Amino acid sequence: MRKTFMGVKLRKLRAERGMTQIALAQALGLSPSYLNQIEQNQRPLTVPVLLKLSRALGVDLQQFSEDDEARLLAGLKEALADAAEPISLPELQEVAAQMPGLARAVIDLYRRQHALLERLETLSSQLGDERASPEPIVSQPFELVRDFFFAHQNHFDPLDRAAEQCAAEAKVSSWGAVAWLEQRLGGLGVRLRWAAEGSKRSFDPQTRVLTLSADLAPAQRAFQMATQLALQAFSADIDALIQVPPFTHNEPARRLARVGLANYFAGAFLLPYGEFLQAAESCRYDIERLSKRFQVGLETVCHRLSTMQRLGAPGVPFFFVRVDRAGNISKRQSATHFHFSRMGGTCPLWNVYEAFSRPGQFLAQLAAMPDGRRYLWVAHSSSQGEAGYGSPRRSFAMGLGCDARHADRLVYAKGLDLSDPEAATPIGMGCKVCERPACAQRAFPFVGRVLAVDENRSQSTPYGSWSPPDAPGP
């Protein structure tokens, strides 16, 4: 970690603990003058001081993570891209590093404005059509849960260890995973029922009957049963994790978080941490080999790889996304800092979209963001749906990415020149918030600057130039 000036964060932490500057200095083994210099941003907050904070006060080092700062910076750039007065990058960096609470508030206001504009557009398009009934766009609970998972680096140690213990018990017994889960649920008064049609999983709290689809594969059956086990046997553990704002006053978000954590437990049961991490490291994170070894789907493997951040035994910090052909991101999980636009419009140069034209293949891409960060991305497309001619199918592409500094640990780095800065494909968060002027794939102008229009000149790249930040507007 580089030396970072985070005096505001440190002062806020001290205020929350009700400690004087002298008391905190004594707890950290520092002189009061040295601590005062850190709080006034006259000295950097170094790694040794961070470790002392963690040991003395039990502080979560994620609060001072550069990854969190990079994520906030990306959100601020998107939220303020079309501000009336252009805001310089150093100013945004200062807010992200020193005032993260303010940064999150600005980003939240931007999301709310975007949701309201979408709702207004929907209502406007339906005016005059009496057959259409306006449907409100409710995206905020999903955003809250995504932020919650990201804040925990997509890893929840109590649930992870509980699932690992259950997996060990299931393998020790003579029962298979499904049979063991059925027995364990039966001990909780839950009866199992199979249905030819309907939802994958349906539980009736009154009769305590769990109905599962008969079409589920063995691993899918185990996943749904483990999800129900988490909601029944580990409900208190789940509630303990979400007894924090905003879930204390937002019931839809709270329920969604409970489902997400129960699914997390199920994935950790099928792929127990220690065994799965050892297998992943030994095969250099080969997704296909892991899928075959643990008899689960490729998407389940990718999900689990994005959660392997146990303290003292972390795996590669991955970012996992699932997109459709229209560019909609339906799943987004992260143990790292990769940033794409939350509001859609992701980069067409990203290899996740190329995967649709090459189904069944794993595509590797070394990509660079405008801020200079480089990533290794692995993409694969798949089609899902009911069996039978004419049955509806769903096509998705999955992307699993990590920072380029971890790339040599992955089998997908074979043949890539990781040392060549020109080898990376330049991608961005989306055209409207991407500041690359010479991109031939650009679909919209960068909203952060005034578009420079010259009727006497035709360029090879669309919207390829704009005025400098201090140029007057139109």
UniProtKB/TrEMBL annotation:
- Family to which this protein belongs: Belongs to the short-chain fatty acyl-CoA assimilation regulator (ScfR) family.
PROSITE patterns according to UniProt: HTH_CROC1
**Which Pfam families does the UniProt record give?**
HTH_3, Peptidase_M78, ScfRs
- Give the UniProt keywords, A-Z: DNA-binding, Transcription, Transcription regulation
Stated name of the protein:
Short-chain fatty acyl-CoA regulator family protein
Residue ranges occupied by any HTH cro/C1-type domain in the UniProt entry: 10-64
